[in-house]
Write a structure and sequence with these properties.
Two copies of one chain form a homodimer.
Chain A lengths: L11 H8 L3 H8 L7 H13 L6 H8 L4 E6 L7 H13 L4 E6 L4 H13 L4 E5 L17 E4 L9 E5 L1 H14 L5 E5 L5 H16 L9 E2 L4 H14 L5 E4 L2 H13 L9 E5 L3 H4 L7 E4 L2 H16 L7 E5 L2 E3 L9
Parallel strand pairs in A: 1-2, 1-3, 3-4, 4-5, 5-11, 6-7, 6-8, 8-9, 9-10
Antiparallel strand pairs in A: 10-12
Chain A binds a DNA duplex through helix 2 and helix 4.
Chain lengths: 340, 340
DNA sequence: CTGTTAGCGCCTTCAC
DNA sequence: GTGAAGGCGCTAACAG
């Protein structure tokens, strides 16, 4: 806090002058090149310290052709799935001296192209494309001169690298948990059939039921991802199939709706009826009555993984291809297991 | 899709060569300098088109000292207030050829300093600092060589420029709405007293009540921002003050809790009891029974405004000082006005 | 009007 | 070991 920094940014030649050497020597000294006498190096380092010099990355990248930046191209910042992924990625890159350009295409292909072009013009070293659904999305193609990783929404081109949640696995461990709790008459209320997430979770759930020698009560009930649908569907279900002892819900929102209806119909949760959701959206799960068991998709981890793949590819490690699946984890709360 | 782009990025000299002119002339032609013959300019433009040339912003900013980037320094990406602000800012900048570096300090001062330094090293042209509460936060100080705007959380230094929601106004229009609905026995259940947002909204609410010649039923009930508190507080309130005909809640979450308890106690909303919240968090408001009236803080607009201030300051317009307040707007739904 | 020269800040040969 | 020179891609100032 002693001195106010100079208006003009301090450059390498300022350091060199103060240390009484040439810029070339100063550069070598600061970059750890081993053709410089130790005492000289120390003089340069001290000078740099004193002027609180930090090399201009602009100049550096002009020469190196690398910018130390990556683009994060999201299709949608509204959705709650993108944010944790973004956090994970930002976190992973931040540790590695890489900074992240954020671009939000707001679900618009035109805007996506526009941002893509802007990012490439800025010479980002890599790209993460984050979608809002787990359904495959159009590939950006292969004439992009930097590594690209697709997160959450996989690319429809298998020669791209994509990282996406393993929803089949998620559905399976959900049912396994309910079965482990002693439930045998399990129903499934979920979101839009148009979403791969809904279909995949249902697939996993049905597979786990089969393994356990059980059958789903009624059909999988698809509609939308809302509390409202949860309420309505539960009313239908509990009227037609009062024997149900567990409802697996396609999202925490749906589960909240089911809990409301269960309460209206005087079914006690979890003793009489177990309820669980997906996504582990804490605002919804921890404030529910009782608190809601859910499957967390580990999205932060997904974002971090995507970042690491890009990061590795920067050091010319070959970027893989195909789709990598991230498994979710079970978070048990009072809606499936009685709490004391 | 005819030709694959060259591995090496095309440079201005490629264009110049193709057009048969010098780089300098090519530069002038493409930048609209008026010392170029029209036919020459056309030749250059055509050549650029043909090679799909886009100038290297790295080189350009090395020369200009401006990078066309700004830093978005958030204290927290978890919170639901930061995201809309971020969207607004990204949107406003995107239109102006400016790209945004996203840095998340995750509530940690050390990390904030680290990111700040990284952003300045990258020579961002401006900075937006987004906080997670409306309480004043420590200023980053004045030895930052670029314009800084504080969004949501204002700076504690009045000579900085801050943009923050007008929560007093929000509290006022909320009560005015309830009064306009014919309510006279209004209570207020809100979040932590430690939050300026809670105190400011209460202040505005009390002022509006006074103007209307009314008094609050009971005291302002402060605790935390959760549904759970909404449920518990409503139970207390409706037992001790059954005459209450409206509950103003400090957040949509609290309001959801109040709605639940009202239902448990067989109070009909809105006929018997009006309920409203703040924040207009759509997942909560539009799925409530009935849908929840709320005050929207216009955070996207806040973000956009912050971006515009920075943007203006880039063109050497003097950055203002002090705190600018953004007013919220009333969003009426079925929890205060009967729907037919 | 157009081309030559110089330089933004840095790093890497290549002489000395 | 060290320094001088050249160049990354671009633009501004000057000559022609």
């Amino acid at each position: 806090m002693a001195r106010t920094p100079p208006a003009r940014a301090v450059t390498l030649s300022d350091v060199a002058r103060l240390a009484g050497v040439s810029v070339a020597t100063a550069s070598k000294a600061l970059n750890g090149r081993d053709q410089v006498k130790d005492t000289t190096r120390q003089r340069v380092v001290d000078a740099a310290e004193q002027l609180s010099f930090s090399p201009n990355p602009i100049a550096r990248s002009l020469l190196a052709g690398r910018t130390g930046t990556v683009g994060l191209l999201t299709s949608d910042l509204e959705g709650r799935f993108v944010i944790p992924i973004l956090m994970g990625a930002e976190d992973a890159f931040g540790a590695g001296q890489v900074n992240v350009f954020l671009c939000d295409a707001r679900g618009d292909t035109i805007r996506e192209q526009y941002h893509l072009k802007a990012l490439l013009t800025r010479r980002v070293d890599g790209l993460i494309v984050v979608g809002r659904q787990t359904d495959p999305r159009p590939s950006l193609g292969h004439d992009i001169p930097v590594p690209v990783v697709y997160a959450y929404a996989p690319s429809d081109d298998p020669s791209d690298l994509s990282i996406t949640p393993d929803n089949v696995h998620a559905g399976r461990i959900a049912v396994e948990h309910l079965v482990a709790c002693g439930r045998t008459r399990i129903a499934h209320i979920t979101g839009e059939h148009a979403y791969a997430a809904a279909r995949d979770r249902a697939e996993g759930a049905l597979a786990a039921l089969k393994t356990a020698g059980l059958e789903l009560v009624g059909d999988v009930m698809y509609s939308d991802w809302s509390e409202r649908w949860g309420r309505d569907a539960a009313a239908m279900l509990l009227t037609r199939h009062p024997e149900v002892d567990a409802v697996l819900c396609g999202s925490d929102q749906i589960a909240r709706g089911v809990l409301d209806t269960a309460r209206d119909l005087h079914r006690t949760v979890p003793d009489d009826l177990a309820v669980m959701g997906f996504d582990n959206w804490e605002v919804l799960t921890t404030n529910a009555r009782p608190e809601l068991t859910s499957i967390d998709a580990n999205l932060k981890h997904l974002g971090r993984t995507a970042a690491q793949r890009v990061f590795a590819a920067l050091d010319s490690v070959e970027l893989g291809t195909g789709t990598e699946y991230v498994e979710g984890r079970l978070v048990i709360r009072g809606s499936t297991v009685p709490r004391r």
